[in-house]
Amino acid sequence: MRLNDSEIERFREDGFLILPERFSAEEVALLKAELPRLFAERRPENFREKESDAVRTAMGLHLRSEVYARAVRDPRLVEPARQLLGEDLYVQQVKVNAKAAFSGDVWQWHYDFATHHGEDGVPEPLALNLHILLDEVNEFNGPLVFIPGSHRRGPAPATLDTETTSYPLWVVEDETVAKLIEEGGLVSAKGPPGTMLIFGDTLVHGSSLNMSPWPRTIFSLILNPVSNALTRRRRPDHQHHRDLTPVAPLPGSPRLLAADRAGVETRA
Question: What region does 77 belong to: left with phi over 0, alpha with psi -120 to 50, or beta?
Fold first, then answer.
């Protein structure tokens, strides 16, 4: 559950890690089984695509599902984050980003700190994004694309885009992206279900349309140091949670998502 020295060095250099086989097929199935119910809910936490009724991102999942409440405390997510940041962390955001087959829209080139700072007043780019791939992610169904090393150039200029998609996003202009790609290249974050991704707050990334017949869903947990908490409450709680209680990993076996499925009760 802890990263080894080589993984830590690679994270510091590239700004991200792709870690296969961190979650079992059974655990992934348990997470996915919650999604039809959660996606069907008509509530502000579910952002739908601009041109369709498909869910683009569903937020606040740990407050809507006991399965996801356990996921945010899974030691395979929490312990590497605490290892990298070295202090108490709070749950900043919990969501599933989805790209429906044939219709999942783009995520423009961006880095998360531009939004965290511009919208929420987060002081420093310390937050970590921890992902679990819930589907097979390949080059055809809109994988995340990272620009390795872009985090080491410092926060790039960014502007708020409210027109391209249904989700407002602070984006990086094409000229800056082109220069970063010339320096660092591109890496597509692909892998089977259960693959884990970790990346930092200033890593520039994006994703293309899903033009394939295969859906692409990714669970995302953002953890941020309590000492680096939001200073502005412009956005609703589901976009940046106000509860700064330090997250504690669940004790016991790492395969907690799959444990005692019959006893899992979903919050109303």
Answer: alpha
Structure tokens at 7: 């993984």
Residue whose structure tokens are 């295969």? 214
Instruction: Please work out, in degrees rounded to the nearest 5, the angle formed at the alpha carbon of residue 258 by the alpha carbons of 237 and 33.
Output: 60
CB 161 within 8 A of CB 169: yes
Look up tokens 């082109």; give the residue: 178
Distance CA 194, CA 198 (A): 13
- Best CA proximity match to 78, nearest among 256, 258, 248: 248
What order of strands is seen across the sheet that includes strand 107-110? 159-161, 169-171, 107-110, 205-207, 144-146, 187-188
Q: For residue 178, give every residue at least 6 positions away whose Cβ sits within 8 Å of its Cβ, in sequence order, or none.
A: none
SS3 107: strand
Instruction: Transcribe 122-162 into DSSP letters.
Output: --SS--EEEEEE-S-B-TTS--EEE-TTGGGG-PPP-EEE-
Please give the CATH architecture assigned to the domain spanning 5-228: Sandwich (2.60)
Q: What is the pLDDT of residues 240-267, one digit of tens each?
A: 999 999 999 998 765 556 554 444 443 3
Rounded to the nearest 5°, which phi and psi values hold at 231?
A: -115, 0
- The predicted model gives 72-94 an average pLDDT of 97
